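Input set for joint prediction.
Command: fold jointly, output tokens.
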Amino acid sequence: MSRRTDILEAAVRVVAQRGIRGLRVEELAQEAGVSTALIYYHFRDRAGVVSSTLEFISTRAEQYTEVDADPEADPRGHLEQTLLRELQDTPMIVENSTAWGELRASAIFQPELREQLRAATARWTDYIDELIRTAQQHGSVPPEVDSGEAAERLTAAIEGLSMRWLSGSLELDRARKLLRGNLIAELGSPGEQR
Amino acid sequence: MSRRTDILEAAVRVVAQRGIRGLRVEELAQEAGVSTALIYYHFRDRAGVVSSTLEFISTRAEQYTEVDADPEADPRGHLEQTLLRELQDTPMIVENSTAWGELRASAIFQPELREQLRAATARWTDYIDELIRTAQQHGSVPPEVDSGEAAERLTAAIEGLSMRWLSGSLELDRARKLLRGNLIAELGSPGEQR
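tokens >
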């Protein structure tokens, strides 16, 4: 792995442990075990670190949500697994979701984060929209479902449930059960369509 | 209004503007125009301020979500208005929702906030559960809806949509449209039941 990736992994850890306000170049250098000069070389300044970290969180989520279900043979199963994977008690997912929630909350106070967060949110929603449309073509989601709206509601539901889970207001099993209910409410019972 | 209320209103403003980390007794005294001694008199210490502020935010939300629709004659309309009022561009609702989101995000890093936040979340969810059950008795929500689960999903959806709106990833009109879709997905079309 490259030094750049090492630094970004350390940056997500810092944001997940200490919040975005804890993400300072000196502390990041210490956490990553590199010099501050190397951080400035790769990211120019603190704003560059923050922006690359957001990008990294969003790309990493696309990777860990890769699932077993074959998107060709079972697009609905693939879609459901992709969304349910966001609610899992693995260190990487907890760290990634914590950092994402922290960026979401920080963007309220820090307008400079907003545009990039909006773009990352749209990319996620568009991806889920596409999975819903594939499931519709396959006949496992009813044609009358508005895939764009359903994708926005499902991803917003994950953010809401995930924040409740991470902040101790909701058990993980319950969060996953509720999300399965969201899927049925939005897309109908999988059984009914087949 | 009492001095205590003045202080709590100032505390919500501070949390909404500067985050929970900005809520220090000295700064709060300045914002509220009172002495630090008066704050210590009413709330004992900073933890007491934080805890009473969370309580105040949650109670104030119950007040501003009071709506026109008669809960007896039109419980489904009353329920929908109650939930949609959380997504409105008025200074008090923006301030309250911002502070609530900040407390939610902070509880991930500050375990001492969790128990009270969990209790406030449960109180909100139970209230919505009760409104759904009333609408079921009235025949405007199908009897097979699990009111407890629907209440948890709807309130989590509001948190998710509200954070997207406040952080600039979603327009308010779109957020309200999506929430109306959540209501139909969870509770069926109002027309179908009547």
